[in-house]
Amino acid sequence: MPWVSITILIPLVASVALLLLPGAERRTARAVALIASLLTLASSIVVLVLFDRQLAALQQVDHLDWIPAAGMSWDVGVDGISIWLVMLTTVIFLLGTIAACQHLPEQRGPAFLGLIMLAQAGLLGLFTAGDLVLFYVFWEFMLIPFALLIWNWGGSDRRGAGMIFVVYTMVGSLLMLVAILATGILAMDATGQLSFLIRDLQGVAFGEATATVLLAGFLLAFAIKIPLWPFHGWLPRAYSQAPIVVTILLAAVMSKAGVYGLLRVGLPVFPEGVGNLIIPVAILALVGILYGSLLAWRAPTMRLLVGYSSLAHLGFIVLGIIVIDRMAAQGAVLQMINHGIVVAAAFAVVMLIARGTGTEDMDRLGGLAKGAPRLAVAFLFITMAALALPGSNAFVGEFFILGGVFQQYAWMAVIAMLGVVYAAVYMLRIYQSTMNGPVRGVRDDGRAAEMRGRDAIILVPLILMMLWIAVWPGSLVDYTTASTDAAVAPAQIAEARPVEQIGVTR
User: Fold this and answer.
1) Coil, strand or helix: which one is 466?
2) How far apart are CA 422 and CA 290, in angstroms?
3) 406/105 Cα distance (integer angstroms)
4) pLDDT given at position 497
5) What is the pLDDT of residue 506?
6) CA–CA separation, 376 vs 388, rounded Å?
7) In angstroms, rounded to a whole number, what is the distance separating the alpha carbons of residues 448 and 456?
8) pLDDT for 376-394, tens place per residue?
9) Domain ranges of the chain
10) What local confidence, expressed as pLDDT, does residue 77 receive?
11) Is the pLDDT of residue 463 over 60?
12) Where in 257-391 does DSSP place strands (E)?
């Protein structure tokens, strides 16, 4: 069975059905979206069960020639890097769909759910694409539903936020398209055939200068989508103006597209050019860690604080990849999953507080723990995970990143550690400002913000996943090791790293 293709097609078919439903068919829309999300999760679990963790190459490949004369094909599969991103996508979108169904917009509710399904299909296709052109198609494909969700159901400045989001991403995407076409044509000169399959392009000797230019074209698109400082200009308005469910999906899943592309395409396809970009990209990541932390510390609203903290955490992930160290790359892959879970939980708490109090402004909140003790406990657990305290799910990933970075560039690790300190400042600020102190801005002591049964359906699974990874991080690392080592090895070899640092044979 072509389980990977099935996993992509289920939400795609559901999105078409939902977009064709009349606006009044809200109950039917809820049923279709929930059933499709559950089936997509079930299909992804089958893919996970069939996965061989000992193999580094793409597995369960579904290949169909698309335009043979142009070297294009439908080629999807999973490796150790993408398998958990597929699982993250199906789980977070299921929880997001449940949240959306609970508070479905009055206007065009079926279309709202249809666009969420469409975004899920695009991200699943991106994380499984084995062909660069197909990678690009899904890269652009997922932009459309997210932009429409912001434009049609966002806040008062939704049009401006959506336009900035589209302009930023389109600029990077066009440069990536040029880089993809140039990659295929230049590779044809070396191999004698036109192919955009990533596995065919690995090992092609582009030369240092050419590889650097091509990699830079991809990197700009990746940096915008992550986002990496200073390409984050779309983030504040998009995150603050999007419906909170859409913000969760943007921060928890879509932000992983760029870092995944860097590890899946950038390092293994253009290893000769990586060395020239290590320091520039690392500096951008370090600035992003510090800048994002400072902005989070001074952010006026809960949503912006969590959004800017995401900018800092993603800087850690980029740093872990670009230093081309096995340990740091392992930490980066693990931290992709950890960040997706933690930031989704943090935004879910923001959603509950905003719905219960009518505001996201931290200066107008306080003492909510008195009326919402269950939410306060859940929020404290999420806060500790965001701080990457020892014993939390994020600790191992952050430790791996800092350890690997320190081994290659000690000064980078020292600067990055300042971000760990600032994380304590801004995360404790949001918790103390909302949960502790005198009651402010609410008339019922915060009881309206309390976590209830339908809210627990969303928050409890996220907390349980944090506990699972905290207790057994090896359950993820065992799957990712072979593919991550294979992804960074070409760049390590090109940089003449010591043989004991390279996880695969030369």
Assistant:
1) helix
2) 8
3) 48
4) 75
5) 44
6) 19
7) 15
8) 899 998 988 888 888 888 8
9) 274-506
10) 92
11) yes
12) none
